[in-house]
Amino acid sequence: MDASLQARAPAQWFGQPRGLVVLFLTETWEKFSFYGMKALLIYYMIRHLNFQQADASTIYGAYTAGVYLTPIFGGYIADRWLGRRRAILIGGSLMALGHFVLAFETAFFPALVLIALGNGLFLPNLPSQVGDLYGEKDPRRGGAYNVYYAGVNLGGMLAPLVCGTLGELYGWHVGFGAAGVGMCVGLAVYLLGSRHLPQDRQRPAEAASTQPTARGGRSFVPLLLVALAVVVFRSAYEQSGNTLAVWVEAGVDRSFWGITLPMTWVQSLNSLFVLLLTPFVIGSWRRAAERGRELSSLAKMATGAAGVALSYLALSLLVLGHGGTPVNMLWVVAFFVLYTLGELYILPVGLGLFARLAPRGMGATVIAAWFLASFGGNFLAGLVGRGWEPLGPAGFFAALAAIAGVSAAALFALRPLLKRVESRSTSGA
């Protein structure tokens, strides 16, 4: 850790470096923007633009895939030329513009392109700053990614409640506009708090170090295999805003005390439970570590994929049991509890794993490689979504359970290979 970071280390909020709070709030507002638009997207295409469900699901998958493809280039551009701060500011501005352009129906596809391009610069560069806030042996470093992930989900929880409600009650474009405003707020937070963040660039001598490059070469193949397993997992996981949202509209009884909840509100449940369950998950990991029984990163990820598989299997059986009648909303809440527990064991853990094994000076690029798995998974999810009508809800959810189960088995099988890489990384070999 360089001298400037050591000088700032004593300044803390809530027991963490102030920079983590800045990144947390920036990410909260960015995800408010992203998920606010995403909560409306499938309904907007089907109800307003009159797309068929299969076509809307494919477009949804292609867009969300594109959002995770562009970070590959954005991370490289930031590491080589722009620097992380300028990349974040340019990317956030493009995303805000894209949300406002959605107000024009004829510019629907150009608006999606703008958001995807802006996200490419923004997405890999914000989380790549988290690890730089801590020393190599700081015990808070591992849990920092779960704290950061809570910021992701705070925005994800608020977005459907605000943007979704505005879109359903006052028009789709009002909801999209609110998402754009959220992105502008996130940029303001980042600018105002930038003095608490780590230095943008390393010294050339550090970046040219050959030892991290060798480590990175040894890490490449195992991380690639992990990423491929995550691609399979995400093709099932990413149905929550796609086909699951389509099912919620007609297949769930959303009435409470005579009031029918907006369909977009259901998409807040996942993020709500991330916020509620994260402290318990981190606490259980800490207690296990104190007893010397903490699971490895890949064992946690395999457990998470298996949990998501189990949640979809339970949903399939639930739909079969109800026949053609709508499912009570409380069962959907129970589904999201199990689904979210699985998510907490795989996605933030995977992000931290990739960040930890990144060669020095290539943090944003390696984080972008993690998001490449998200690209593949989201694109595949769009294609998988085309099976919604042919299979029907019960059959489709059972297929998703099988897909997530295959991913869990693959991650579990990769444990010995990655264990050797992590051992070399710890020893500095």
Structural class: mainly alpha
Cα(first) to Cα(last) distance is 19 Å
How many H/I helices? 16
Give average pLDDT, whole number. 83
Task: Indicate the proportion of strand residues.
Answer: under 5%
Across the major sheet, the strand order is 1-2
CATH topology: Growth Hormone, Chain: A
Low-pLDDT stretches are 1-10, 203-216
Shape annotation: globular
Number of domains: 1
Query: Which second-level CATH architecture applies?
Result: Up-down Bundle
CATH class: Mainly Alpha
Report on this model:
Residues 1-10 and 203-216 have low confidence and may be disordered. The longest helix has 31 residues, at 18-48. With 429 residues, the protein is an all-alpha fold. The chain has one domain (16-201, 211-427): Growth Hormone, Chain: A, CATH 1.20.1250.20. A hairpin with a 2-residue loop joins strand 1 (12-13) and strand 2. Helix 2 (18-48) runs antiparallel to helix 7 (172-192), helix 6 crosses helix 13 and helix 9 (210-237) runs antiparallel to helix 15 (388-413). It starts with a helix and ends with a helix. The strands form three sheets. Strands 1-2 form a two-stranded antiparallel sheet. Strands 3-6 form a two-stranded parallel ribbon. The radius of gyration is 21 Å and the shape is globular. 77% of the residues lie in helices and 3% in strands.
